């Protein structure tokens, strides 16, 4: 086998090893790699140790491109995000996408015998496998029920037919069940092997094309290879020597194990190599202490001669989407990016070097490109280090920054409208309304006295407050921003840390920006505000104060982004807060994004959006509606996975996975809508508060068909509060050929302003 089959934690051998000789020789096929979850360091036979992923990731190793070499990958079980690399090295991912839902357990294998390994997940809540035949976001090509709820999955080609077969193992007692064939709901083999001190791995140990289970014993540093299909269960024991670190399948979760894999690392048969201990990870580079700004005589652009430390782990999230040309203008921390922009023309490319670039605000020229080197951070925050004790508090003076206040706040967040934030060791504190309210985890800005107060000793901590408003903005075209971490900007509500406008009001839109493969986090207002023809692709946009993404204008593409944990500053999301919100757009495409755990709707189009397409998105666990199309026009909402949304406000049908509110000509099909506050809903209200020149704001021609809808509570259907039943009788609103799974009170449909049973629903010609 070329591939590393998935491994799981198993537990010390229950089978005695008498008669098995622990030799110091070599395996003749697969070998064992080790992974350190604390430092994300990998130990692969035959090469120096390296870093990949982040602490807490689940490791995987498979042959992602079919070249015969198994290489690294990681899975973030909290989000279902995969980062796969075609090399065994530190650096950015070659494939980044979402697959599965939080809580799924990943594995990998060659499910269609084409020589390329691809991803799969096991969903313990359903005891179901979902296999995908390409390393990309989408639905499973095959799925079937197999295993048990506490099972840990693995895979291997146990009969040598070229197809990998799945299995599960009970981490409590070592019970192993292997499926019959590569898609099966019945076992071909069940046996006990292993106990709590050992780790299970799967590989072709003798190079004969057939996989077998092996068990690594950390106490003895040995690998016991089994033959579950024969009479002798322990076939051989290999001495792995003085290995350091832990096996790839070590205990990363409370169940006692995770998935990983092993294979022929260099495509050849070779001896097991004892990996060396890696160097300690270097700290993230910061700007030089007390760096003076350049004088007028100095060039504002420097070519740094300091390389990025090779031992510093690079975030796989922010791999640049474009390559760095040889003539790129290199900008080191402490050097003005804007001065460099001013000195060069519209074809210039700037390489923002590793380190923290503080309080930089850039207005690009049309056509310019900005690329972040690994470890490059643009921060809108200022370091605070002149603290004085003030009773039970600490205070710093001389803080004259005061951005524009804007927005409506929840009652428990009275200062959400103030754009300044404060962070201690990257943790955002809550801004309270008075000095007397300051305590642990909170802070207060006395704007009149230019003082900031905190309730904990700042000694030995990194304390920052956001000052600069925007990292990039301007009424220009064809700008590219990629590979950067952009954080802690004091952007007001409805303003982006990246904002493709010259200012928040007026017709000042820029056009055709590419904002790709950045991490945009901990800004106050919106992460990215995009406009005409811009593409926002492959970004990780999280923990922003109001929204992750927003914008307006024609022809925008929003694709392959992770949008999570936004509206942390406490904006009233009925006003505007959550994952996203676009307005006054035409031909907007929102495709293959993962929006989750936002305080508000997951994906939201509100006010005069025309010809919107939502497809292939995963929208889960948002406080508000999953996908919300409001006082807008023609839209298609198709092939999305929508689960666990809308429980923050599920009155009437406002907790639905999909809501169409006062909007005509919307087709909804091919979606999985599972266990939201409500199912799929149309809502007709009088929206004279937001009149439109594009025509009536009526629910007309809403065509809901061929969706899978599961409801444990709430309702699916159509409601109105304007005293006009025409929305039910003569507006061509239809529910056709949907599949329902119901676990509620039985009256889980709404039509003609009355709750209906499924039988009543069907009798009305709805299905």
What is the molecular shape?
Answer: globular
DSSP helix fraction:
under 10%
Query: How many helical stretches?
Result: 4
Structural class: mainly beta
Number of strands: 69
Biggest sheet, spatial arrangement of strands:
24-25-27-39-42-45-48-51-54-57-60-63-66
Largest sheet: 13 strands, parallel
Which CATH architecture of the domain at 5-262 is right? 6 Propeller
* Termini separation: 48 Å
**Rg, please?**
28 Å
Contiguous low-pLDDT stretches (5 residues minimum) are: 1-29, 242-314
Query: What is the CATH topology of the domain at 5-262?
Result: Neuraminidase
Amount of beta strand: 35-45%
Mean pLDDT, as a whole number?
Answer: 82
CATH class of the domain at 5-262: Mainly Beta
Give a topology summary:
Elements: E1 5-7, E2 22-23, E3 34-36, E4 41-43, E5 50-51, E6 58-62, E7 71-76, E8 81-84, E9 95-98, E10 105-109, E11 118-123, E12 128-131, E13 142-145, E14 152-156, E15 165-169, E16 175-179, E17 187-192, E18 199-203, E19 212-217, E20 222-226, E21 234-239, E22 246-247, E23 260-262, E24 329-331, H1 337-343, E25 349-352, E26 355-358, E27 369-372, E28 376-379, E29 381-383, E30 388-390, E31 393-396, E32 422-424, E33 427-428, E34 430-431, E35 442-446, E36 451-454, E37 463-466, E38 472-473, E39 480-482, E40 485-487, E41 496-499, E42 514-516, E43 519-521, E44 526-530, E45 535-537, E46 540-542, E47 547-554, E48 557-559, E49 562-564, H2 573-576, E50 578-586, E51 589-591, E52 594-596, E53 603-606, E54 612-615, E55 618-620, E56 627-630, E57 635-638, E58 641-643, E59 656-661, E60 666-669, E61 672-674, E62 678-684, E63 703-705, E64 708-711, E65 716-720, H3 726-729, E66 734-736, E67 739-742, E68 749-751, E69 754-756, H4 758-763
């Amino acid at each position: 086998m070329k591939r590393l089959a998935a491994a799981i934690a198993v537990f010390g051998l229950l089978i005695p090893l008498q008669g098995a000789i622990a030799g110091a020789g070599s395996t003749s096929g697969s070998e064992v790699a080790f992974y350190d979850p604390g430092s994300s360091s990998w130990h692969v036979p035959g090469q120096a140790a390296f870093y990949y992923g982040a602490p807490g990731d689940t490791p995987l190793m498979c042959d992602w491109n079919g070249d015969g070499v198994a290489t690294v990958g990681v899975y973030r079980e909290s989000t279902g995000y995969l980062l796969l690399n075609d090399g065994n090295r530190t650096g950015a991912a070659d494939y980044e996408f979402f697959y599965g839902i939080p809580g799924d357990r990943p594995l990998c294998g060659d499910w269609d015998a084409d020589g390329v390994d691809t991803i799969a997940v096991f969903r313990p809540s359903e005891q179901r496998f979902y296999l995908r035949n390409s390393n990309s976001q989408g639905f499973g090509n095959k799925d079937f029920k197999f295993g048990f709820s506490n099972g840990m999955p693995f895979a291997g080609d146990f009969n040598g037919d070229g197809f990998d077969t799945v299995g599960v193992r009970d981490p409590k007692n070592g019970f192993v069940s292997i499926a019959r064939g590569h898609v099966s709901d019945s076992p071909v083999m069940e046996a006990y092997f292993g106990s709590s001190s050992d780790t299970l791995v799967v590989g072709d140990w003798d190079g004969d094309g057939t996989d077998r289970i092996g068990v690594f014993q950390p106490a003895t540093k040995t690998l016991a290879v089994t033959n579950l299909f024969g009479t002798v269960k322990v076939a051989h024991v290999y001495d792995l020597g003085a290995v350091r670190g832990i096996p790839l399948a070590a205990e990363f979760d409370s169940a006692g194990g995770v998935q990983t894999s092993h294979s022929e690392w260099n495509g050849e048969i070779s001896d097991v190599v004892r990996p060396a201990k890696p160097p300690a990870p270097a700290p993230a580079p910061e700007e030089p202490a007390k760096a003076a700004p350049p004088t007028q005589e100095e060039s504002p652009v420097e070519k740094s001669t300091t390389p990025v430390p090779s031992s510093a782990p690079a975030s796989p999230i922010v791999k640049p989407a474009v390559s760095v040309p040889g003539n790129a203008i290199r900008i080191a921390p402490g050097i003005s990016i804007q001065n460099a922009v001013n000195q060069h023309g519209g074809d210039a490319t700037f390489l923002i070097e590793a380190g923290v670039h503080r309080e930089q605000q850039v207005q690009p020229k049309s056509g310019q490109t900005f690329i972040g080197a690994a470890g490059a951070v643009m921060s809108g925050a200022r370091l605070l280090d002149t603290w004085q004790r003030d009773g039970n508090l600490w205070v710093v003076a001389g803080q004259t920054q005061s951005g524009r206040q804007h927005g409506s706040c929840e009652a428990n967040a009275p200062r959400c409208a103030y754009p300044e934030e404060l962070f201690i060791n990257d943790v955002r504190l809550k801004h309270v309304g008075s000095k007397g309210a300051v305590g642990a985890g909170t802070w207060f800005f006395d704007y009149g006295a230019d003082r900031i107060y905190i309730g904990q000793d700042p000694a030995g901590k990194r304390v920052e407050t956001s000052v600069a408003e925007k990292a990039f903005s301007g009424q220009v075209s064809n700008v590219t921003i990629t590979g950067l971490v952009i954080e802690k900007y004091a952007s007001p509500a409805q303003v982006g840390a990246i904002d493709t406008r010259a200012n928040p009001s007026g017709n000042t839109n820029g056009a055709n920006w590419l904002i790709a493969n950045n991490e945009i986090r901990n800004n106050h207002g919106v992460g990215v505000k995009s406009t005409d023809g811009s593409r926002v692709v492959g970004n990780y946009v999280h923990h922003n104060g109001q929204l992750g993404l927003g914008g307006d204008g024609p022809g925008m593409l929003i694709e392959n982004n992770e949008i999570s944990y936004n509206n942390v500053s406490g904006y009233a999301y009925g006003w505007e807060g959550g994952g996203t919100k676009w307005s006054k757009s035409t031909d907007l495409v929102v495709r293959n994004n993962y929006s989750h755990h936002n305080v508000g709707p997951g994906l939201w189009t509100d006010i005069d959006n025309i010809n919107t397409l939502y497809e292939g998105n995963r929208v889960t666990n948002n406080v508000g509606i999953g996908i919300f199309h409001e006082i807008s026009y023609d839209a298609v909402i198709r092939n999305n996975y929508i689960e666990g949304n809308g429980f923050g406000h599920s009155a009437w049908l406002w907790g639905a996975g999909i809501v169409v509110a006062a909007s005509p000509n919307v087709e909804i099909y091919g979606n999985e809508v599972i266990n939201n506050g409500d199912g799929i809903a149309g809502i007709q209200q009088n929206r004279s508060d937001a009149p439109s020149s594009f025509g009536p704001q009526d629910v007309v021609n809403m065509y809901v068909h061929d969706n899978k809808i599961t409801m444990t509570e709430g309702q699916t259907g159509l409601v109105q509060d304007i005293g006009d039943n025409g929305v039910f009788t003569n507006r061509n609103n239809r529910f056709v050929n949907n599949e329902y799974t119901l676990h509620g009170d039985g009256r889980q449909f709404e039509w003609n302003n009355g709750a209906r049973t499924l039988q009543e629903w069907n009798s009305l010609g709805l299905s």
